[in-house]
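Why does this matter for the project? Reviewers at the last site visit asked to see concrete outputs rather than summary tables. In response, this paragraph embeds two records directly. Each consists of the residue sequence and, immediately after it, the corresponding structure tokens. Nothing has been edited or filtered.
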Amino acid sequence: MRRFTVEGTRDITIENLGDYSDAVVAALSARPDLKDLVPRWEEHLAKCDAQEAQKKARRRALNRARVAYGFADVEFDSVVKATSGETYHLAGKDELNEPYVSFFGVVKAPEICDFGEAKATAYGLNMVKKEAELLAALDSETTRGIVKGLLANLGQVASALSEAGDVREDAATALQTLDIERRQLVRKTITLIAETEVGILTQYKGRRDLVDAILALDNSAPKSRGSRSKAEETPFAETVDLPV
């Protein structure tokens, strides 16, 4: 019998852990005289199923957060490119004139679009903070109005990108924290196996074969009987396979 240990099952998924617990419930239930051992495994299975449901919900939340971030990133890049074109024309197509030089004199639009979330957000919000300075450098009231609108759009998409990034990171963290609970369930499984082994041997002294049949951790087929295939002998082989 392959032993179930924390080290040996460190990477087992919560799905496989639930499948294993369900298989033990089925095996114990096949012996009426072992029914007293079933409730603890059923309770354990319920915890595994609950954590699996949480994992699914949090994984989907992370997927949605990633999609939302992707849209926010695209929108940010779109506004930066539009701002670059607009300010370039307002500057008379001279990169040394205002308002283009204030927006893109040090770093160009393509480079800003390649920024990560932190730098992109910092750029956008910093430009908004410089609004008074930027407007003061312009002579035309019409140009000031246009630049004011450009800054408002830039600030909006920069804030949206920052918020989307925070949501994405929070969702990723929430999913990762489930691994602690999974490890705790692995430890609980080890305790249950030990208790169940004692319970089986108390009822059936010396029946190690029965212990192995109920608590086996591998998916090897039992000895063939008659013409039944291996698949027929081990219908749940895949669901109880635990990686080491």
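We now turn to the second protein, recorded in exactly the same manner.
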Amino acid sequence: MICGKLVHLRGIEREDLQLIHSYLNDEEVMAWARARPDHTVSMEALEKEYELELKGEDARRRTFIIVENESGKPIGWASIRWHGTHSTTADIGLALAEKDKRGKGIGTEVNHLLTALAFDQYNMHKVELWTLAENKAAINSAAKNGYKIEGTLRETVFFNGSFHDAVLMGITKDDYEANKRGGA
């Protein structure tokens, strides 16, 4: 378990797939997280996607359930991914599925927990994330944790009949260490 002040992150269990399934099939939850027009997923496809991770055999991703400390209830999910066993760059992502929990600093804390995990435990050199350019909350949250915008991917995501820009953000281990020391 990875503990913060507002939430903690715990590894997914098979029973969590039903919860993730409901999140992935919720139009409002997926409005900020999708990368394709059809965000829906079947339970069978979800089980197949997470099978290796549930067995502890996925060498490229760790998925967590975000649990609110105060209530003990799951409120979303998060992940850290890397492209291979020798990769030095990780990609993080999170979704707060419980809409009433947004805007309370939880996303910023989850971002911090994932970033610390990537650098302090997985010894990554760089951590990246992407979000839709109009997702100002995610951009601000990442910036609070030292991430910088590295580029805009113009018209790279298509849904609801139009193309949308995405923003790539990143932080290096040196920047992270400077932030920890209060230098940035």
